[in-house]
Protein 1
Amino acid sequence: MEGMTLPELPLSTPALLFPAISLLLLAYTNRFLGLATVVRGLHANWQTSQEPMLLAQIRSLRRRIQIIKQMQSMGVLSMMVCVVSMALIFFGQRMGGQITFGVSLVLMLVSLTLALVEIQMSGAALDVQLRDVQLRDVQLRDVQCREG
């Protein structure tokens, strides 16, 4: 790394990540709790109906919950590494502080990428349900036309 100099990193720069990380973790937790409620409802419905489609939805939700847990983990690790970065900068270890801050940013990026994947999965699941509603509507109209 000879000849490469990193810009000065004041203690306040890593501190800027704290509100962003905190809000992300809150949003992730809300998504997790929302999915947990949906899973409980689907499970109760599945116990009474044993409909295979419900089981498939529960499997999909399980995968999404796993991704949300990974998102949360990367967010928490990002915050922890950010704290280490601030400590290193505070104690005069400029290079170590800059490197750990970079690692913190990478962890945040991983967390956000996982969030994007989960959002795409959520959208796909909603599309499947909307197509099912549309199909049932068409079938109902066909029956009504034949009867009417």
Protein 2
Amino acid sequence: MGLSGGDRTVMRARQISSIRLGFHRRVAVEPIAPRASGRQRRAKASREVTVFLDRDGVLVRNRSDYVKGWDEVEIVPGAFAALARLRSAGARILVATNQSAVGRGIVRRETVDDIHDRLARIARAHGGPIDGFLVCPHRPDDGCQCRKPKPGLLMRAQRERGLDLSAAFMVGDQASDALAALAAGCTPILLGDGAAEVSGSLRARTLGDAVDLILHATGVDS
């Protein structure tokens, strides 16, 4: 389920993608910051945190008939601003999503990848680049190890990126997100009031509120 509440409006992806972002062709590389001292680098590493995000219900609005193409993507307002806050605090951002519509033959994997490419470009333009997308394409009855609530996607990220999952958070809107996080040793944060209670989970109304919790827990100001 997505976040409920009449106080939330949703912007269609086509509206976001049509905004002129003001890129300049001559600005191709960001200026190189002064080299940090060894102490500064160690301090940064000690507080570096990974935040896993579910996709549907967190970044984009859920659909009962699945998101089948970019024209059906509806961006949750404030989502990319929340990602920018995480990035400015030094967090890694990974999206971990169940996409059983692929296994059901409803959506092609290439279409899912295209949606993610577009989301990544928008996130980067808003100052909150996403480090990667972890996708389970299987149906619930396939018996895979990557479909949440199993922790396979998160464990894969640990193997491939050398992450400390004990210092990671998982933000989602379903009990399966929280259960996957707990199984992997992460801290789960459930959004809204639609998901069942999961012992050991934190609660937040919006992604922005979840970012507040993360920054407070890690002692990093936004």
Protein 3
Amino acid sequence: MKKTASFVLVPMVLALIALAACQSASSVNKLSKEELYAPYAEQQPVFTGDYISVADADVPPKPAYAPPPVYPAEFKKAAFSGEATVDLIVLADSGMTTQVQVVKATNQGFAIAAADRLKTWRYAPAVKNGKHVNCLIRVPLDFNYVQ
């Protein structure tokens, strides 16, 4: 019975991840030119629930599924590069990301693209004292346009 369940669950999970990727591409590309280039004010994220800092983990989370963010179409046309820094919590039970919050970014377009993509990433969870734990990590993303 377990074998059948895994054959059903794996395609379903992959379909959900693909759907999330398509949705993130559309949210960035729906912004106006002014919204894309608007400055992003540096934020001080606030997190809730039980978690540890990555510095306190015996084994930090490791990316298991980490596709690159969708490069905003307008920025490709302009050959525009930038960066974003995102804080998030990796869940102990699933390796999924939660409470994804942009700390700083070159502009709104890169902030949204980074946050949207990191919501789809999956990790091998952090370990503390031999147990999986929720873990707060910081993820820097570079958007370097290369023709």
Protein 4
Amino acid sequence: MKFHKTIGIVGGAGPVASAFLYNTILEVCQKQYKANDYKDFPEIILVSYPFTRGDKERIRKEISLCESKLKQAGASFWCIASNTFHGFLPEIDLPFVNLIFEGLRVAGNAGVTKALILAAQGTIDLKLYEGSSILCVYPSLEDQRLIHQIVREVAGGHTHERQAGIIKGVIDHYDVDGVILACTEIPIIHRSFPLNLSISMPIIDTIEVLAEKLVDLSIDPLKK
């Protein structure tokens, strides 16, 4: 396998999830392409930026600044390791890999028609997962409070099996045929304590989906 393109990642929203995306890219290379040497992994440029919270226009400017840094460093294409920030995208120069589109694509391919969206409140408010043929279902206010608490715990470095149990309990409240983990912190729990061990419907891990797409785009098509 030979890589001919450089992956760019805008991270920092939050930093834990950004590091998790980086590690997931490495895991994809190891599991799918048997990578075990330096040359078996793609070149990755990660800009982890301390974004402003609550100021949409300033966030757009900060994302644009990060994209410029990636371009100057030689990134071939880029992504943002955050669902919510897809609602604040500036004008884009480099080719962009959209986490939302990729998550919906994989969900559709898995036969999901009615999905529970487990996400930060900002992603829900922006309705980022709507507009496709998949019907979006959102947690109740009480269930969303539980999800928000778990996200903050993970962002603070705390991951426990109890959190997976709470998420499973939330999922059981809804009549859906799939779940989209639409917050980049929730897949961290899913990777340690797989939700699909007790849930038969498709669980779409958007971090894993994004990592697989990034690796695929970085590989020389003549060397796959």
